[in-house]
Write a structure and sequence with these properties.
heterotrimer, A alpha/beta (573), B mainly alpha (147), C alpha+beta (247), B: 147 residues, mainly alpha, 3 helical TM bundles of succinate and fumarate reductases, 2 domains, two-stranded antiparallel ribbon, 4 helices, C: 247 residues, alpha+beta, Ubiquitin-like (UB roll), Fumarate Reductase Iron-sulfur Protein, Chain B, domain 2, five-stranded mixed beta sheet, two-stranded antiparallel sheet, 9 helices, 7 strands, 33% helix
Chain lengths: 573, 147, 247
């Protein structure tokens, strides 16, 4: 028994990119009907936790599109596709302006114009912000604005289990209604994936529990390549233990990073960030912190060694005006008041530069399938993302994917519904067999934990060939053990154990792609720091890595990088 | 540990695809200290109702002539009436203090061009007005002025 | 770890396919000193009883998913430290909401009230992107900023005595959000929203218990918003007789 819902465009994921795509779709065509299928209510999407800001050129300032593009390409260690970056920086200001028109409470200068702050790797302050809760305000603005369109039909707490490809194009998705356990077929002439990244493949991450790489796994299994998966970003300032994010804005507003001797090591020692010091790019600062800890200048704690983020010299007034959420988080989760004490921090897994292979239009190689936001790799972030580019990325490529999906849907057919229904019923049978599957010797939470630990050992801030190969070797049997899962919850209604089981399957596929891609890249570039090959090797590795699914394991390919204006040079700050 | 509140509390306009259990509140929802204070606050309405009835009684006695008036004034020294008026005063003080505490944040940030004064100033103004009106009534009704 | 302390969690369970009514189940959990209530619930799910269903995501008090009753008080379980509790902790679903399963409540009623206040910028003329952003002074931003901080966690609905009795009442978060837009200098929708505030589910149902503001984890102060909204709704009603309005 499958429930069938028919729409023109189906969007999977209701965060920043998904909501922007939905709005763009209904604005592009007054008759189009959009389904937004999300496994959580949209305001719970992880966009909400972003803190620092969104980057865009401010008209009338001494910034320029060229400078923003250059900063982004250099930040990416020259792996970004420069035509996509040009489009990105050009669309950034219109997108943030639109968001302001829709009610986003950007922080202001005294004259009423939008304020900006400096950010890591940016030569000119161009990061628009809303105190230190930009993601929260952006998500809520988008969600509330989307509510005025009745043609955006939401299916909240529906988990997509399969992409349906029929007759050479994507024709819809199959999802399970989390509340009732019913299987649902969403027929759509175009599908947009906006499901975010996969931080939960790692044990220590800023990400919430919902970041399980679902969209990446869906596309991967449907034959789309995952691009640049080895590049995972470690954010320099996460709270030890919980991994909660302390925004880069705390450094943007003037915070210092100190070692156990109270030394501002980013200034006193040469870690490649030059004058920028704490405002260097994230990959370099994370590496610097790890090296300081390895040199014995970290501080021992119950959750591992850490260094310090000192905001005391900013003063209470500035902290309360610009970084109030940081103060609240530090007090609640590590019992430290940043007005009086430095905050303990260490590098924490935060963002995935890699993802579903798309082009500038948000289109994947499979007709009718689009992707935008963290799930996608366009690529504008290359091997390392600059802070405050990703919120803008959600808006720019979310909007483009929405428009492109509508254009495609106008011309596309719906595929053979009987075949689609049969696939949906097959998914229903698969889930029925999983639900409360008592036989089997493996515990879900243990397999998940082992996967996470393998990824931490193999794909940390610093990697070496032996550890990466070890991670690959550990993941394959984990997939085998996953097939032998024992599940306890037999209920149809709001069965979160089943959900976690499906998510774990997605994470194992994504984790394997990351590890395999990492082991194959024998150079250091951006966030991929390989101790065995410490230098960047443009001659052999100036390409995107592509991982494709095959039943016998991942298959690797290369994809060329589009280089137009900025020739690769040494990345020094 | 809990018992149901209004069975339709927070119900969506159409029922969902699964059966839900009715909404619950903890057993001590209505007896917790803060809630008790609030219920007392609302319950003072009964006291005002009685004050209103007594006021009607006074008006009736006024219309019925000097003998009826004198009889009513004598009856006001009865311990029950004294206790009632003490209760009414306590209720007025209780409500006044709680209301003054909560009143400042009920002022919008601005009404047109006008902005309300800061919170402590506003509260001081409320208490001052209360004091002035009370004093004024005592003076006038007590016959001190106009003499 | 020597400072691990065993606590008993008495958790509400309900599966509509099996249970007539909700019941409770007790779990012994070895708790680390820095744990929040959510950490204990996740331990139960991961190690003791995988059939326990609860909502959570960000674990940093910004997504609003994890609201539950802890010892009878609505709390964000990711922010509630176990240090503040004794050997036994009761965890129940949020008050005043229908219960779907275990600690998961039906929030569709809330979503309807949320949408009813028209929480978006209403402007007669759509501003063009080429015109740039609106000018909004820091003072104008401050007029509504506080009320924009709501994470939709619904603790205020669980605490409100009126919500418990009046199913039509719009409720604290919805009214605060409507008021946020009313106070935004870029919005022109006050007449429409004030009509909603005076209509079914009227703001005047609020009798200023102030419970919503007491439990709000983000200091939104919905009680302030509702009572400001009352004043604005009255002024709007009075001026509607004097000023002609476009419908």
């Amino acid at each position: 028994m499958v429930e069938v819902y028919r729409h023109d465009v189906v969007i999977v994921g209701g965060g920043g990119a998904g909501l922007r795509a939905a709005i763009a779709a209904v604005e592009a065509d007054p008759k189009v009907s959009v389904a937004m299928v999300s496994k959580v209510y949209p305001m719970r999407s992880h966009t909400v936790s972003a803190e620092g800001g969104a980057a865009a050129y401010v008209p009338g300032s001494d910034d320029s599109l060229e400078k923003h593009a250059y900063d982004t390409v250099k930040g990416s260690d020259f792996l970004a596709d420069q035509d996509c970056v040009d489009y990105f920086v050009e669309q950034a200001t219109p997108e943030l302006t639109r968001l302001e028109h829709w009610g986003c409470p950007w922080s202001r200068n005294d004259d009423g114009s939008v304020a900006t702050r400096p950010f890591g790797g940016m030569t000119v302050p161009r990061t628009w912000f809303a105190a230190d809760k930009v993601g929260f305000h952006m998500l809520h603005t988008l969600f509330q604005h989307s509510m005025r369109f009745e043609r955006i039909v939401r299916y909240d707490e529906n988990f997509v289990t399969k992409l349906l490809v029929d007759d050479g194009a994507v024709r819809g998705v199959v999802a399970v209604d989390i509340r009732s356990g019913a299987m649902r077929l969403f027929v759509g002439r175009a599908v947009i994936l906006a499901t975010g990244g996969a931080g939960k493949c790692f044990p220590f991450t800023t990400n919430g529990t919902i970041k399980t790489g679902d969209g990446m796994a869906l596309a991967y299994r449907a034959g789309v390549g995952l691009k640049d998966m080895e590049f995972v970003q470690y954010h320099p300032t996460g709270l030890p233990g919980t991994g909660i994010l302390i925004t880069e804005a705390s450094r943007g507003e003037g915070g210092y990073v100190l070692n156990s001797e109270g030394e501002r090591f980013l200034v006193t020692r040469d870690y490649g960030v030059g004058q920028k010091a704490e405002l260097g790019p994230r990959d370099m600062i994370s590496r610097a912190e790890i090296l300081e800890i390895e040199a014995g200048r970290g501080i021992k704690g119950p959750y591992g060694d850490y260094v310090l983020l000192d905001l005391r010299h900013l003063g209470e007034a500035k902290i309360m005006a610009k970084l109030p959420f940081v103060r609240e988080l530090a007090r609640t989760y590590v019992g430290v008041d940043p007005v009086y004490e430095p905050i303990p921090i260490r590098p924490v897994l935060h963002y995935m530069m890699g993802g579903v292979d798309t082009d500038l239009r948000g289109a994947t190689p499979v007709p009718g399938l689009y992707a935008a936001g963290e799930v996608a790799s366009v690529s504008i972030n290359g091997s390392n993302r600059l802070g405050s580019n990703s919120l803008t990325e959600c808006l720019v490529f979310g909007a483009r994917a929405g428009v492109e999906a509508v254009a495609f849907a106008r011309a596309a057919g719906t595929g053979n519904e009987a075949r689609l229904r049969a696939e949906a019923e097959g998914e229903g049978a698969r889930l029925d067999a999983l639900r409360g599957r008592k036989k089997g010797g493996e515990k879900l939470s243990h397999i998940r934990r082992e996967m996470q630990l393998a990824m931490e050992r193999g794909c940390g801030v610093y990697r070496d060939q032996a550890a990466m190969q070890q991670a690959v070797a550990e993941l394959a049997p984990l997939k085998g053990r996953y097939a032998d899962l024992a599940l306890e919850d037999t209920s149809q209604v709001f069965n979160t154990e089943l959900l976690q089981g499906l998510e774990l399957g997605n994470m194992l596929d994504v984790a394997e792609a990351i590890a395999v891609a990492a082991a194959a890249r024998r150079e250091s570039r951006g966030a991929h720091a390989c101790r065995d090959f410490p230098k960047r090797n443009d001659r052999e590795f100036l390409h995107h890595s592509m991982v494709f699914f095959t039943p016998s394991g991942p298959r690797l390919e290369k994809k060329a990088v589009t280089i137009t204006r900025f020739q690769p040079e040494e990345r020094k700050y | 540990m809990a018992r149901p509140a209004n069975p339709h509390a927070m119900a969506p306009s159409r029922p969902g695809p699964t059966r839900t259990a009715p909404p619950q509140v903890p057993d001590d929802f209505w007896t917790r200290p803060r809630m008790r204070t609030y219920l007392l606050f609302d319950a003072t309405g009964v006291v005002y109702l009685c004050v209103g009835l007594v006021a009607l009684r006074v008006a009736w006695a006024l219309a019925a002539g000097p003998d009826a008036w004198q009889a009513l004034m004598t009856s006001f020294s009865h311990p029950l009436y004294v206790a009632f008026h003490a209760l009414a005063l306590a209720a007025a003080l209780f409500v006044g203090v709680r209301f003054f505490r909560l009143f400042p944040k009920a002022q919008p940030a601005r009404i047109g061009p006008a902005k309300p004064p800061p919170r402590p100033v506003l509260q001081a103004m409320l208490y001052a007005a209360w004091g002035a009106i009370t004093l004024g009534l005592l003076v006038v009704l007590g016959g001190i002025w106009p003499s | 770890m020597s400072d691990v302390k065993k606590r008993t969690f008495v958790v509400t369970r309900f599966d509509p396919d099996r249970d007539q009514v909700p019941k409770t189940q007790s779990y012994e959990v070895p708790c680390r000193p820095d744990w929040k209530v959510l950490d204990a619930l996740n331990f139960i799910k991961d190690e003791i009883d995988a059939t326990l269903s609860h909502r959570w995501s960000c674990r940093m008090a910004v997504c609003g998913s994890c609201g539950m009753n802890v010892n009878g008080e609505p709390k964000l379980t990711c922010k509630t430290s176990l240090e503040d509790y004794g050997d036994t902790v009761e965890v129940a679903p949020l008050s005043n909401f229908p219960i779907i399963r275990d600690l998961v409540i039906d929030m569709d009623g809330f979503m309807e009230k949320f949408r009813a206040v028209k929480p978006w910028i209403i402007a007669a003329k759509q501003r063009a992107v080429e015109e740039g952003t609106y000018r909004q002074s820091p003072e104008q931003l401050a007029a509504f900023k506080q009320f924009s901080m709501c994470i939709n966690c619904m603790l205020c609905y669980a605490a409100c005595p009126v919500v418990s009795q009046e199913p039509e009442f719009l409720g604290p978060a919805a009214i605060a959000l409507g008021h946020r837009y009313n106070m935004d200098s870029r919005d022109e929708g006050q007449p429409e929203r004030n009509a909603v505030f005076r209509g079914e589910g009227t703001v005047f149902n609020c009798s200023y218990a102030n419970e919503c503001s007491e439990v709000c984890p983000k200091n939104v102060d919905p009680a302030a918003a509702i009572n400001q909204a009352k004043l604005n709704a009255v002024i709007d009603w009075a001026t509607s007789f004097v000023v002609r309005r476009e419908k």
